[in-house]
Amino acid sequence: MRPALAALAFALALTSCDSGDVPSPAERRQGGEGAQAPLADNAVELRGEGLVAGPEAFYFAAGQREVEAGLERALGAPLRTGENRECGAGPMTFVDFAGGLTAHFQGERLVGWNWHLPQDGDRPASGTVRLAGDVQIGSPRTAPTSAPGFAAIEGSTLGEEFALGNRIGGFIEGDAVAMLYAGTQCFFR
Predict the structure, then answer these.
(1) What is the predicted pLDDT for the residue at 119?
(2) pLDDT tens per residue across span 56-90
(3) How many CA atoms lie within 13 A of 101 on its CB side?
(4) Sheet holding 109-116, edge to edge
(5) The domain 37-183: what is its CATH number?
(6) How confident is the model over 9-36, as pLDDT tens digits?
(7) Residues in a beta bridge with 105
(8) In the chain, domain spans
(9) CB within 8 A of 14, min separation 6: which ones?
(10) Alpha carbon of 44 to those of 87, 98, 130, 146, 181: distances in Å?
């Protein structure tokens, strides 16, 4: 009888666990939401739950060293690294890569990214950066406004801000997408 009782207790314990929005290992193997063909080794695809660098997927909470190594293989050595201890979410480290990608880390864990136009003086990207879907940096205004899940963020003090579903946001300047982001940011509103 005891083995049966122990098995029942174990089964109940498993059913009470909740991983929230983090995909299970089985979902990751199956590709989770929107499984796609593998990326080229020098490509980075940004997603609402993290990013993919070449053959490796990194969900938010992935280790900083692993993420930086994957991004470096795809895009080349980081352009610069910085830290802001004044972020509302707590101290954050930023690592910039060619192609306008900035990875955000807290406690040596990936917590967010933003993708923007490259800064003056940045070396050209050796790889490509893109967002999963049709909205990209430089896309015309009509790309995000016609995308599924689009919502204008009314009253933003940062400019013309929008959301694409629950996980991705962005800004329009002029009539083009100027920045896209996901995860924890250090915006001062």
Answers:
(1) 86
(2) 999 999 999 999 999 999 999 999 999 999 998 99
(3) 33
(4) 80-84, 92-97, 101-106, 109-116, 176-183, 168-173, 160-164, 150-153
(5) 2.60.460
(6) 333 333 333 334 444 443 443 444 445 6
(7) 93, 110
(8) 37-183
(9) none
(10) 26, 11, 6, 24, 14
